[in-house]
Specification:
Blueprint: H1 2-29, H2 41-60
Bound molecules: protoporphyrin IX containing FE (HEM).
Length: about 70
């Protein structure tokens, strides 16, 4: 499940980056229609919940390996 969420987040980030790049590139050539500037919002709407899910996951997983924070993980 987490693997799927991570994969969705990864691909959405790629789409988001490409759309934002396309907007910046397009702006240099022509005046873009207003709706064009809203195109990053759908991938961002995917990134936000999947990102928050991955962020909170460690706090709810219940896995504790007993390693003190100051020792860190190697
Ligand atoms: C919108 C709010 C976002 C939140 C809350 C969020 C949160 C997170 C979290 C918690 C992780 C996992 C980090 C870990 O492995 O411990 C992650 C991974 C990642 N995020 Fe986001 N993120 C957000 C937006 C973005 C955006 C805008 C991009 C890039 C355009 C992005 C690109 C990535 C990538 C590439 C990864 C690594 C995924 C992988 O494992 O391949 N994220 N993000």
């Amino acid at each position: 499940m987490t693997f799927v969420i991570r994969k969705v987040h990864r691909w959405a980030s790629l789409v988001f980056t490409l759309v934002v790049s396309a907007i910046f590139a397009g702006m240099t050539f022509m005046e873009l229609p207003e709706w064009f500037y809203y195109l990053p919002l759908p991938p961002l709407a995917v990134l936000l919940p999947t990102g928050i899910y991955m962020f909170v996951l460690p706090y709810f997983s219940g896995q504790r390996d007993g390693t003190p924070a100051h020792e860190g993980r190697t």
